[in-house]
Amino acid sequence: MAIYKTEITSDSIPSDNPIHQRLLKPYVVIAEWVKGDLLELGCGEGRGFDLLAPRVENYLGMDKIPRVIESLKKKYGTDLFRQSVFPPLASLRDHSFDYVVSFQVIEHIRDDSLFLQEIYRILKPGGKAYLTTPNKRLSLTRNPWHIREYEAFELFELTNRYFNKVDLKGIHGNHKVVEYYARNKRSVEKIMKYDVFDLQHKLPSFLLRIPYEFLNRLNRNRLKTADDEGVLSISHEDYQVSDIPEESLDLFAILHKE
């Protein structure tokens, strides 16, 4: 069962393709690095399962949405997925996993400090966690599904409190991606000029979610209609890991536990 909100980007909706490929890239990257026991927090509809599961001895995916987990269990197996609202991660023992993966999740977590502490607790000594989250500096508008977003220095300072070493990188794109982002920015700016009272920053998030979904989907469809070939031609190969997180679309944190 698929959930086709713009916040849960789909690989089967053509206008979502540039965002889907951007979210897929970190999975492609870390698939070369992981082994042993791996936990994915916020596995969603399983975007990275086929890349990660064959690389590790044991995979466990957790997500808060029951129907998503039930769908994944039917497709892949009941032992591989678990429904859970986190943090905390009370059902998981200390020092249980070699790797923890959590992509585009921490911005949804109210207690981000506890979230990171729990990841540290369940990692084995020598383990690593991989996190991505949108770069606040490049966000085009307020996302009412996010509790908060981070600039690079904010994410570094937060994660550095709990981990022995933090490597902060970014996910950015080539000229095709930059062109899409620029078109998207211009389109969003045209829409937001009608928000003369800056309601996006004044109203509570629950009041903004329906108009946000409607306008975001409308905007993605318009971008595809205007340049169908360009939108569909973008692949994960058009994104790369950047050493300049401040200028990247997403922040990519590699967290080490000694």
Describe this structure in words.
This protein has 258 residues and is of the alpha/beta class. The chain has one domain: Vaccinia Virus protein VP39 (Rossmann fold). The protein has 9 helices and 8 strands. The protein has helices at residues 17-30, 49-52, 66-76, 112-122, 152-160, 175-192, 199-202, 205-226, 228-233, and strands spanning 37-41, 58-63, 81-83, 97-103, 123-134, 165-173, 239-242, 250-256. An 8-stranded mixed β-sheet has the order 3-2-1-4-5-8-6-7. β4, α4 (112-122) and β5 form a beta-alpha-beta unit. α6 crosses α8. It is globular, with a radius of gyration of 18 Å. The model has no long low-confidence stretch (mean pLDDT 93).
Overall geometric form: globular
Number of domains: 1
Q: What kind of oligomer do you see?
A: single chain
Largest sheet: 8 strands, mixed
Uncertain residue ranges: none
Question: What's this model, at a glance?
Answer:
The protein is α/β, with parallel strands linked by helices and 258 residues long. The chain is built from nine helices and eight strands.
What are the defining features of this structure?
single chain; 258 residues; alpha/beta; Rossmann fold
What's the layout of helices and strands?
Elements: H1 17-30, E1 37-41, H2 49-52, E2 58-63, H3 66-76, E3 81-83, E4 97-103, H4 112-122, E5 123-134, H5 152-160, E6 165-173, H6 175-192, H7 199-202, H8 205-226, H9 228-233, E7 239-242, E8 250-256
Parallel strand pairs: 1-2, 1-4, 2-3, 4-5
Antiparallel strand pairs: 5-8, 6-7, 6-8
Helix pairs in contact: 6-8
